[in-house]
Amino acid sequence: MRCAIYPGSFDPVTNGHINLVHRGLAMFDSLIVAVARNSKKDALFELDERVELLRQCLADEPRVEVDTFEGLLVDYARRRGVGVLLRGLRAVSDFEYEFQMANINRKLSPDLDTIFMMTSEDHFYISSNMVREVARLGGSVKALVPPPVNARLNAMFGDKKG
Ligand code: PNS
Prior knowledge:
Layout: E1 3-8, H1 15-27, E2 30-36, H2 47-57, E3 64-69, H3 73-80, E4 84-89, H4 92-108, E5 113-118, H5 128-136, H6 147-157
Parallel strand pairs: 1-2, 2-3, 4-5
């Protein structure tokens, strides 16, 4: 049974993340979507809400588990007995950070490997960062995020975004 961990902040989950989960499920028997308990300065959603939104958006995927982790990702992967991390690569700008992270993780845990999937062309420009900023400033993110996330953002910032 091949399982991979798809780690991230998911603040909030976007259509790009969901697309990656679906494509990851074509390669792996199951996926653990692991939400990091990191406290970034400009975080919009609490951990519980990020998890809840992911669970709603992935409710029709019995092969996906949504979990949280604190501390080092390599320690979490070891605890879960999983040897593969899945990450999405959008653009050249993602590469340096992802390259660093994959290598540090492999240094810390030589058995742990990272598999990258190119984000599909419909989603390569979407980031949680941009979604947060557009929503905060009153723009529409309907085309960028799953319906439960759009509804939550409308409730937070008003539904002038359509
Ligand atoms: O969605 P993100 O913010 O790009 O995800 C980054 C994440 C959470 C996967 C990364 O920051 C992480 O693994 N954090 C846990 C702490 C850790 O293991 N750090 C060492 C590797 S950078």
